[in-house]
Structures are given as structure tokens and as C-alpha cells.
Amino acid sequence: MGLVWLLVGLAGLAGLVFWGIPLFLAEYFPWRYLQRQRLGRPVVTTKSYAGRTALITGANGAFGSRAAKLFAERDIDTLVLVDLNDCDGVKKDIEKARRDAGKPVPKIHVWQIDMMSYAGAESLAEKARALPHIDHVLLTAGILAFKTRKSPEGWESSVQVNYLSTALISLLLLPLLKSSPGNPNPPVLTFVTTFGIFPSSFTMGLPNVGSYLRKMSTAHGDMAQAHQYGRSKALLLYFARELAARVSATGRRVTVTSADPGSAWTGLTGPNKDKLIPRLIMNFGAREPLICATALVNGVSADADGHGKILHDFEAVGYPPFMERQSGRRAGERVWQETKMEFVEKVEGVKEVYELLE
């Protein structure tokens, strides 16, 4: 009898090692995903952006500022630098570098935005109407909130900035996207996604009753707040997938992608150095911010084949497992519908955009 139990125990252990642990890692910590990014060394694949316009949110941040400089190095005609903070320093750096190299200096607009309110997105869209073309929109703006606080709109700050305001910007800019005459590809709208979605996914289940977005906007305690970045980015990835599907259904010539730059030690992630587990994860996957920015520039330069896809270093990867299940499809639809209700009620002009998508 003892031998039987020993064999059962060994079989159980073998099952855990060969099936249980790989399944767990695939759901919550796909380390190969991080390893490929850490070792990846992408280069910008588009040789010239001459005549084109690129708009970047979070343009004062580590990734956004470097992405702007990569565009400028490849002869972009117009850059729109958008951030809560003044991007005049980024503008001056680009102008000096171009003059020192004896190269043409792009037209650079510096716009400030309040990502904690819907009014910020509305103001951005109003200014963007004056642009004759918008070829590339790279939405890098985001926050990593370690303490719970609410936006003036009544949402947890990560959900407000990383999801709702970013989604609203994409909707309001969508009708304005138009390729420049020399650009052979449709305009590209790119959201920034992250590995952090995976470890947060076990908190992403649909509620039995009540609003899904409200559940995602509620965090009690430091541990729950630690998942808010991943949760807010998961909401954004759900939204991006739904938006891409609806753009396809209407036949609009716009490419919608999500790009994962990988991780890097930046001003945003710096506080994680004081936290053991986040520090170990970051150290496992971190690479130079310029490499991350390069991946984002490739993501927002994709041709029509990249539509609806997640791009790593300009290579498409699959959606997280929980999003591909039937429950994930239902969650994505809930995200889309609840977000639509929120925006239509509170944002003037967004109803007309939704009508274009239906």
C-alpha cells in the first residue's frame, strides 16, 4: 500500500513539473516572453519618415522622448509632442541635434495635456484638427500609481490615465487620421501594452453583478494597488482589440496596433527598486530605454498586416491566454460597452465617432 501511495505521489509531482508549472507560467509569468525582449535588439525598419506627421503622448517620458528623436533622425516632417509636463526641452534637443548634423529641422508642436480628465483629451483633439495629416499616433502616456487616488472623473488614477483617457484620445483622433501624400501605408494608431498584464490577470475576472470597470477601478490595500498598472493596461488591450475589430468591419483605412516595448529602468519604474519581487522581475527583463523606444517606433510604423496585433520588436505575438478564452471575449465586449456608456454620457462629440464604428 505504501508503494502505491509513493507511486501516486511521484505521478502527481511529475504532473506538477511537466504540466502544472508550465501552465501556471504561461498564465502569469511567461519568462520566455521576457527573455526574448531582454535579448532583442531591434532597429527602426522605416528608413525615412519624410513628409509625415507623428503625434506622441507621454513625449517627455523615457520612451516617448526617445521615440520622438528616432522619428526626427529619419527626417520626419512634423512632430507633435504631448505630455502633462512641458516638452520644450525635448524639442530643443531635437532641433540642436538636427542643426549640428546639418539636417533639416522638423516642425515641432509642444502641447500639454491633463490625462486625469476627459477635457484634456477633448482639448488635444481640437488642436489636432489643424494638422493636415496624421500618419502615426503613439500613445505612450501612462502612470504607475503606488497609492490609491481618484481622478476628478471619479476613477482610480491608473484606470483614468492608462485606460480611459488614452482610449478617449484614440477615439477622438480616429476620424482625423490621414496619411501624408508620400506615405504608402494607412495611418497607424498604436497603444502601449506590457508584460504586467500577465501577473495581474488573476484579478481580472468578471463580477457577478455591477460594473466591470468599477470593479477594476477599486483597489483595497497596497497589494491590490500593485496590480492596478497591469489591470489598467489589460483594459486598454481589451479596448484596442475591440477597436481594431470595429475599424476592420467598417473598412476604414487605419491600422490599429498594440506595441510592447519591454521593460526598462526609468523614472516611472524607479520606485520598484525598493521592492524585492518587482525588482527581480525588472532585472530579469530590463533593457535600455532606447531599445524600448525603437520597438514602439516599429509598432507605430506597421503596415496593414499589423492591424489588430500585438507587436514585439516588430514581430507579432499572441494575446494573453485569459483574453483568448470565451470569458475573455465576454470581458472585452463588456469593456467596450461600459466605456461607450461612460464616454457618450460625459464627452461631447464622441457619440458621432462610435456611430462611424457601428
UniProtKB/TrEMBL annotation:
> Coiled-coil region(s) at which residues?
none
Taxonomy, superkingdom: Eukaryota
- Whether Ligase counts among this entry's keywords is no
Cited InterPro entries: NAD(P)-bd_dom_sf, SDR_fam
Transmembrane portions of the chain? 6-29, 159-176, 188-206
Q: Which UniProt keywords apply?
A: Membrane, Oxidoreductase, Transmembrane, Transmembrane helix
**GO MF annotations, alphabetized:** oxidoreductase activity
This protein is called NAD(P)-binding protein
Q: What organism does the UniProt record list as the source?
A: Schizothecium vesticola
Taxonomy of the source species: Eukaryota, Fungi, Dikarya, Ascomycota, Pezizomycotina
